[in-house]
Amino acid sequence: MVSSQNISQSSEPAWASDALRRLQTALQCAEELVFEWHLPTDVILWSDGAEKTLKVSDLSAIATGASFAHFLDAEAVAERERVAQQATSPDKPYITEYQFSYDDGRSCWLEERGVCFKAADGSPERIIGLLKVVTSRKRLEERLTYLASFDELTGHLNRSRLRGSLEAALTDAHRTETSLAYLVVGIDDLAVINETYGFDIADEVIAQTGKVLQECLRSDDIIGRSAGNKFGLILPNTNERQMMEMAEWVRSNVRGSVFRTKAGAVSATVSVGGVLLPVGGHSSQEAMAHAEEALEDAKSSGRDAFKIYRPSPQRSSIRRRTAAIADQVVSALNDRRLVLAYQPIVCARTGNVMQNECLLRLMAPDGSIMVAGDFIPVAEQLGLVRLVDQRVLELAVETLRAHPQAELALNVSGMTATDPSWLGAFVSNIRSNRDVANRLTLELTETVAIHDIDSSARFVASLRDLGCKVAIDDFGAGYTSFRNLQMLDVDMVKIDGSFVRGLSENPDNQLFVRTLVDLAANFNLDTVAEWVATEEDADLLRAYGVDFFQGFLYGKPEINPEWLTTTQVLKNTADQAG
């Protein structure tokens, strides 16, 4: 390889010299060096900038293979020699990586690629290669490798590695016929710390809690961060009494600690759920779930509490039923087996149908029907209700478009009503079907509406801006105040059916309903009485000034009501005539 000095003295044309200088500049910018190592003399020739790239005092420090090897450990030298001997042709280059270390403790990582050329007698003569500084990439790889096993905030095992360690501990307990314990430790009311001091202070509390827990453990115990505010503790060779003692020790030490943070001194407590293994779980997944279950029991009894997992046939049955219902909901969404049943809402004076409420039904593969009350609570619990509500909206819009005379009302779950992403999807859907918006009423339950009155008011305003009407459902159950009604600015209130059913025989409810109707009238709101079942109740409600009735007296929910099929028949006939 020619040196930079030889380049300047060569007889090459000027443009070639300029091109070579540009190439060397590019190599320096990329922290790359070209080298030729003459093996018989051990001399290494470097492209320009080697001292700067490798951060050595002068070129003599790396001018020979021996001097260069001074910066490498014995293992790197041996590996470098091994791979170089295998690269005996240009189409079979070698590649290796190693650490380049300085006497003052600094180091960098280098990637070397090269080809070994042989002399006429077959002995290695020279190596020509490319050396690149890859410190940033290696440190990123090391960081990613670290994060694959450890939690960045606390330095403890992450959930995946914690689960793997628990699985290994379970296997060992089976082999040695010993018991172990798994504790899940949750910081109490971390949300309050977040709201009071900020998320960065909460992170400090989490990290310092982890240190306290680490100090509580024995040498063979294992700690990991299993969730945002939770730690998992694996306690080998531990019986139930020892587990209880450890739980008390953990709670006592956290309770007695004062965490020094950027916001000042902060205190915290923890609640603990524990499971004895292997009797309390045959796999790491089962053990962690049971410990979480025990933690929930502990938290339900207050702060700074401890509960041990005890098998419960009733709880297991509920869990299995919940899982089965969740599977049915997901399957029905995928197979489009969620359908609407329509119940008429009639004018109190004339009995004419003014609107139909859409009530959700799940049609099983065998044709049986499940009412919303049997699966919506599970959908809410497992976070599926937003998908369900989105499907209900799609079905309602399809009906409105297919039946230009129809007016529909549909319920919106509390979780969905305050979900900005769903509201965005709703707005997009209505914009694509703006001609049906004025025939659609969205019903929001009163208890949900007043739980977060500001979010509910924004939700209502967004819907009304699109042309939809909004009703407060189950009016009276949450005891809405005058101020709340003013803030919500809705079009209609639906009186909770529990106050309407048997109204003619209940003087207390009569007074309450009359008061609700007067309250609505003061705000010029239409009123709908739900669950109207008898003429006697209807007469009283009509006398109070209720505008609309809904209940079995005027029609039960039907999946295929006559108006739906009749309108379709008329449409088909018109299409054929056309």
Describe the structure.
The protein is α/β, with parallel strands linked by helices. It is built from 23 helices and 21 strands. The protein folds into three domains: 4-141, 2-Layer Sandwich (Beta-Lactamase), CATH 3.30.450; 152-311, Alpha-Beta Plaits; 325-561, EAL domain (TIM Barrel), CATH 3.20.20.450. It is elongated and about 115 Å long. It starts with a helix and ends with a helix.
Shape: elongated
Mean pLDDT: 86
Q: Taking strands numbered 1, 2, ... along the chain, how are they ordered across the largest sheet? A: 13-14-16-17-18-19-20-21
What is the assigned CATH homologous superfamily of the largest domain?
Answer: EAL domain
According to CATH, what is the topology of the largest domain? TIM Barrel
CATH class wording of the largest domain = Alpha Beta
Q: How many domains would you count in the coordinates?
A: 3
Task: Name the descriptors.
single chain; 578 residues; alpha/beta; Beta-Lactamase; Alpha-Beta Plaits; TIM Barrel; eight-stranded mixed β-barrel; 23 helices; 22% strand; disordered C terminus
A few lines on this structure:
This protein is of the alpha/beta class. It has 23 helices and 21 strands. The model is unreliable at 1-16 and 568-578 (pLDDT under 50).
Topology readout:
Blueprint: H1 4-9, H2 14-29, E1 32-38, E2 43-46, H3 50-54, H4 65-69, H5 74-86, E3 94-101, E4 107-118, E5 124-133, H6 135-147, H7 159-176, E6 180-187, H8 190-197, H9 199-216, E7 222-227, E8 230-235, H10 240-255, E9 259-261, E10 264-266, E11 270-277, H11 284-300, E12 306-308, H12 313-335, E13 338-347, E14 353-363, E15 369-371, H13 376-381, H14 385-402, E16 408-412, H15 414-417, H16 420-432, E17 440-445, H17 446-451, H18 453-465, E18 469-475, H19 482-488, E19 492-495, H20 497-500, H21 507-522, E20 526-529, H22 535-544, E21 548-549, H23 562-577
Parallel strand pairs: 11-12, 14-16, 16-17, 17-18, 18-19, 19-20, 20-21
Antiparallel strand pairs: 1-2, 1-5, 3-4, 4-5, 6-8, 6-11, 7-8, 9-10, 13-14, 13-21, 14-15
Helix pairs in contact: 8-9, 9-10, 14-16
